[in-house]
Amino acid sequence: MSSSRIPECNLYHEKQEKQMCLLHAINNLLQKRVFNKEDLDKICLMLNDKYWFNPHRSMLGLGNYDVNVLMTALLEQNLSVTWFDNRLRADSIVTNKIVGYIFNTQASLLWYYLTKGRHWFAVLKTSDGKYYNLDSKLPRPKLIEDFHDFVNDHLDKGNELLLVTKPEDADSCIIKRNSK
Fold it and tell me: Record's superkingdom (predicted)?
């Protein structure tokens, strides 16, 4: 699904439940409920057969899935994930190759101790060229006024950015600049 074809008034937006932010980020990125908790738990078991103390999720069964689960789930949807080097700036992204963006951010202090300190959310571009933050902690999708500033601000804070593309665009979604 190309994010450039999504009408702004019909953005799908799941809201935060437990530690399911990765589940919500994936479904928000895909713009429909494709995965549920059981699906992501099956991916965890596929990655590591330990039911208890599985390194890809919370041992309490509340979610808190890791990047391996994200990458495997999106691969099932014929999408690739490219880790964006946070030393680069937003203008290095070839935006017309991007299906969507997944951010992994530092959580608040209390949430940090409960969840290893990370939170996932998706950003999509609509058909009119506007970017929306689909964070499950927000009551509704939020318009991003300046996408480059938004990305650079998150990178400057030490947050991670993952670029979601079609497999054929994975190697060309970032402008390669020569260092001198």
Answer: Eukaryota
The tens digit of pLDDT for each residue in 65-83 reads 778 888 899 999 999 999 9
Measured N-to-C along each axis, helices 21-30 and 37-47 cross at an angle, to the nearest 10 degrees, of 110
Return d(Cα 126, Cα 159) in angstroms, integer.
23
Q: Where are the domains of the chain?
A: 15-171
List pLDDT tens digits, range 88-141.
999 999 999 999 999 999 876 555 555 556 888 999 999 899 999 999 999 999
Of residues 13, 24, 119, 154, which has the active-site annotation? 119
Residue range 15-171 forms a domain whose CATH class is alpha beta
| 119 flagged as catalytic | yes
Specify whether 21 is catalytic: yes
